[in-house]
Amino acid sequence: MPPRSEVFPVSSLKITPPPNRSPAQNGALWLKDKQITDGAEGLWRVHDGLYDLSTFIRSHPGGPEWLELTKGTDITEAFEVHHLMSTPEKTLKKYFVRNAKTKRNSPFTFKDDGFYRTLKREVASIVKTLPKQPINNSATFTDFLLAGTFMFAVLANTYWNYYLAIIAGVFLGCLVIAAHNYFHKKDNFRMLYFNLSLMQTREWRISHVLSHHLHTNTIDDMEITMNEPLLPFLPHEKPPFIKFGYYYLFFPIYWLTAWHTNFLKRVSYIIKGDTHLIQWYDFVPYTLPLTMYLISGQSFFATLWMWTVIVGIGSFHFSAVGLNAAHHHPDIFHDGDAPRSDTDYDWGLSQLDAIMDRNEITGSHFLVLTNFGDHALHHMFPTLDHGTLELLYPVLKKVCKEFNVDLRMTSQLELIKGSFMQVMRTEPNPNPPDLLNKYQTICNQ
Length: 445
What we know:
By secondary structure, the protein is mainly alpha-helical. Helix content is 50%, strand content 5%. The protein has a three-stranded antiparallel β-sheet with strand order 1-2-3. The chain has a three-stranded mixed β-sheet with strand order 6-7-8. Strands 4-5 form a two-stranded parallel ribbon. A hairpin with a 2-residue loop joins β1 and β2. The N terminus is likely disordered.
């Protein structure tokens, strides 16, 4: 294993590097690092205030897990992004303890007259008027994918048909992406569908929601650092095997095995004594092979093999879409590149810099739900259902024009090619993303 200094470059956003981060990390280790660098002093930090939310955990409308996970860390981004209305700010004041002794390690700001809070106010003013039908449609699509996954998996096992297994795997991949829509929200039963992937909702609430969504493409983005040095998306010197084109072979192998690898990694931590990784809903992944076994009449080992194939296909779809959905391209900001600002970097603008959306996906509710679509709006308003995001584009365009910024749009093929180019890129981009004006945008469509 290379020394950490060789794996993770110096942050161009001046983020203090995590002291113990390594490719072998899990969610608990990421949070432990945050407790060291965030200056929260064992409490919950929001901006420059420290709050003791211990007595509020069980009353938290989103569920207790969010506060249980984040004690001792800076939750400024999570607090700002997950609360549209002003009521949480009023509630928070009751739990104020004292001001923090150190400045925030995060470079991002949330000024009242800044881009993100302006956009949030505009969205808050219309969100209650949005129709409920898109939310119901998301639930219908997701439940349909669940039923399809089980039906085709049983048929594949019964008739020992790999074509049916591929269909079941695609259904499963789409289902898991759709279910990710739900673990951003308050606790609900559909978020448990995600666990059919062999991954775990709790771990992904850390690595994806609290880390990736809020610290996108920085050295605090766990989805960036957990894959180094095998998937080195940050611009720095690459291992020799990357230079020799190894990545072109590794990419599809990674897609195919990502779910199983994640599962084995979690099991290894449990064996080492990390019992917090054991959750009551860990039985969920095994409901699929159990159903296949009980209905199909195939042997246990035959069923196990067919399930493994289906999970591999689902993993391929999920990972191929996820890694090429929005974030990786030489023209997208990655920590190490020149930032838009290193003194007053509005969090919402950082999302525009770290994301390109796809023309082929935007506009279709089903494709958005099952392919990580409307990615910028999802990052900025993760608690809103994917089905309502399309209705926010007029507001986003209005605020973008007000601030003279824009959301770049490109093709899925360009983002796939861009991922390969990004992983090979060694030199930081000297131009801030707002100066890269060669893409179609939402305001000039």
